[in-house]
Amino acid sequence: MRLSFDPVAFDLVQGLATWLGVMVVLSIVAFITSLLISLATSGFSGPPQVVMHLFQAFIDLIGTSPRRCWAMTQLTFREAMRKKTMAVFALFALLFLFAGWFMSDVTADADLQVKTYVSFVLRAVSWLIPMMALLLSCWGLPEDIKARSLHTVVTKPVRRHEIVIGRVMGYIGISSLVLGVVSVVGWFWISRQLPDTMQKQMTARVPHYGSLSFISSEGKEEAQGINTGDENMYRSFIEGNTKARAIWTFTNIDPGKFSAAHPFVLESSFDAFRTYKGKIDRQLLCQYTLVNPKKNIRVTLNAFEINEYRRNTYDVVEKNPSLEDNETHKAVELKDLLADGELRVEAACRSSSQFLGMAKSDLFIRMPDRSFASSYFKCILNIFLMMVMVVVLGVAAGCFLKGPVATILSLVINGVGFFAYTFVHSLVTGEVDYHNPNVKFQGAGPFGALYRIVTHTTPGIAFEDTMFFKVINKLDEASLNVLWAVSKVFPNLEAFDTTEYTANAFDVPWDAGILPCLATTVGYCIPWLLVGYFSLSLRELESK
Amino acid sequence: MAQDIVIQTRNLTKIYRDFWGRKKVKALNSLSMEVKKGEVFGLLGPNGSGKTTTLKLLLGLLFPTEGEVTILGKPATDVTKNEHIGYLPEESYLYRFLNAEETLDFYGKLFDIPANVRRDRAKKLIERVGLTKARRRQLKEYSKGMTRRIGLAQALINEPDLILLDEPTSGLDPIGSRDMKDLIVELKKEGKTVVMCSHLLADVQDVCDRIAILEGGELKVFGKVQELLKDTGVTQIKTSRLTDAAVKDVRDVLARHGAQVMEVDHPTANLEELFIKTVRDSAAHPGQRFVPSDKS
Q1: Per-residue pLDDT tens over the stretch B191-225
Q2: pLDDT tens-digit series, residues A171-224
Q3: Coil, strand or helix at B153
Q4: ipTM beyond cut 0.85
Q5: Is A157 in Cβ contact with B107 (below 8 Å)?
Q6: A169 to chain B: which residues are within 8 Å by CB?
Q7: A39/B contact by beta carbon, under 8 A
Q8: Which residues make Cβ contacts (< 8 Å) with residue A140, sequence separation at least 6?
Q9: Who is most buried in A20, A406, A540, B145, counting CB within 10 A?
Q10: Which domains does chain B show, CATH number per domain?
């Protein structure tokens, strides 16, 4: 019941700057391309027409009629209802009816059982609903154009963007209805599947994370601990009974949030790496030291046996009825430690020659819990946002492509965004680790790579500082910048999957879980709506 | 443009091209014509002559390769012109999952017509096109004739000043066809302008004031129907029934004036009139049927 990543707060300003940069680049490229095409097809009368179309787009936007948009929305909704889209419920019904047979395991730990059920429901919803939305949205407009029913619409005073908006709203409406019903059914299904003894595991922990640094066995400050041979360096280790420490620094702690009802709890989940078997019935020992750096108070707490790889809840006051400063041996109150809203927690392994492994998110101050429902429906909100993006892309693609081609395009873009965004990101940025931008591939870039292939040079060898390699580096830099802009065509749908929070009984944080999805949705939908509008406006519906 | 000119085209040309921009066919070649306010105008021509292309250029469904179109004083691509236009396509391209009431309500909303006005108009139009009993049935259950009728109703939902009808009598039985023609005449009386394209010449002759005949994308004939059809080389006299003696006297008189009598006969009704009379009589006298005699 722990995360396999560090929740990183979304930087809205940085995100907005990136979005504006991409929009400006793509707009300029689109404008220049349009001018060149119009010049080639219509001669010198072409470019003024491009400008006129832009002006017309502005006029159209001002003249938007909510009633017409609503009429298109209702039409789309009615169409989906009458074309038996609701049959998708049957699929979910089957899943919920029979999934329990394959997942029930009363011998499993309660938290793992909850995780399995919650993951199943949320993953099923996050796969099937966007897929349904994709198929609906990609086929709607092309079918309308093929059947020519759109002709009777566009010969009314309907602006093309009203058709696009109406269709988008309609598909969002119908998909939301399905999503709403399925998510509520899923909620009850989870509650019903879990025995009463496990119900208390359905919660949403609110962690207060700190920053993590290390002190090595020799007492030196380090960014990371020891690597015990794992390829994945997400967690690093400290050696037992040495000077090695993992140090979490917490800021902005509100002491008022803690009381007898909500005690000050440090919750952790550490890996263990044993160099010898040790006592088979004993777990490794861990010890915390709480430090208030401003008041120079250090309080070493009682050591405890950890549940290796599992949750450890450490109620500071309960486990340590009296706290005293290590140097002065004076009694210390918890509120003194938290007085400045800043606290350092030093974790030490107290089992000799054994190692404890940890990452930033493996220890946190547990704030008062929220309801499981809040976490569950925040996860559903992100699935809704993902669905919105899928619909907008599908409708936009349907404005200039036929149904099957629009479906393939949407599948590719959403598929890459859902399954391979991190990979594409690392290709165009050279970053090995998405969460650690400082670690980069050597020799990334198409021109450099080509040179290395031809000359059989390994990526580990740096280029010499000559004019030739400077040119190659510059070409690589330029091409990677273009590729970076192009890679933004793929939405980061990986970020929309916040199942891990909910399944691990965490609340979905606003700044790291919801805000990035919300910003991505808005940022992604605006350009695609423009693509849809211009495609439909400039398209001859009757072209043979 | 003069106040009474509703549609004006100048050198209107449309060339269809393939994906690579290569010329496929020249569907319309330098069409210049005008349609006046309040008239019924017919666009005639064989299949592939450019009638429907002209209509689609007027509606902005196609963009001209060359030339200009103005319709109600606005460019064809200006969607605001559509507020005063009603369009019945060749096939009634409607949403087949809607029923008649929902169809008219939907198109009414596209004109921003308030709900109560929409409801009233929809009811009246459904009555006018004779679909009251079928108003709650989805269009996919409609016959072709019924679909044409609801198509016509949607074209009139905004009480348009200009109505464009593409093959309006196509798919209609003779009664439906007659009703359609009567309606066109009614619309003309209400001061509306009607442009219809058809290759059913009798329909056009019945209702149109002026016509244009297209062939191979080019305008071949343009003018008033009566003037174009008038044969000044022949004189026709219609009287009440004459006796054989009177017919002989008339022939003599005409012969004295040097006229050559080409035909003296009793006029016959056309098949359309006979059909309509039969169906209407049948409605007035249900159960009456034709019993063939032994001689027949």
Answers
A1: 999 999 887 777 788 888 998 888 888 888 888 88
A2: 999 999 989 988 998 888 888 887 777 777 788 899 999 999 999 999 899 888
A3: helix
A4: no
A5: no
A6: none
A7: no
A8: A76, A79, A167, A171, A395, A398
A9: A406
A10: 5-229 (3.40.50.300), 233-287 (no CATH)
A537 contact residues in B (CB cutoff 8 A): none
H-helix or E-strand containing A58?
Answer: helix A46-62
Averaged pLDDT for residues A257-261:
83
Give the residue from A286, A301, A305 showing the smallest Cα distance to A355: A286
Q: Where are the domains of chain A?
A: 6-55, 66-200+371-537, 236-358
Residues of B in contact with A75 (CB under 8 A): 95, 98, 106
**CA angle, residues B247, B249, B251, in degrees to nearest 5:** 70
3-state secondary structure A77-143: HHHHHHCCHHHHHHHHHHHHHHHHHHHCCCCCCHHHHHHHHHHHHHHHHHHHHHHHHHHHHHHHHHH
Asked if A178 contacts A89 with a C-beta cutoff of 8 angstroms, the reply is yes
Residue B49 is classified by DSSP as S
Does A155 lie at the interface with B, CB-CB under 8 angstroms?
Answer: yes
Structure tokens at A408: 């393939």
d(Cα B7, Cα B36) in Å, to the nearest integer?
A: 7
Q: The pTM is what?
A: 0.83
A156, closest residue in chain B (CA to CA): B82
DSSP state of A513: I
Contact A65, A162 (CB under 8 A): yes
Euclidean distance between CA atoms A135 and A88, whole angstroms: 12
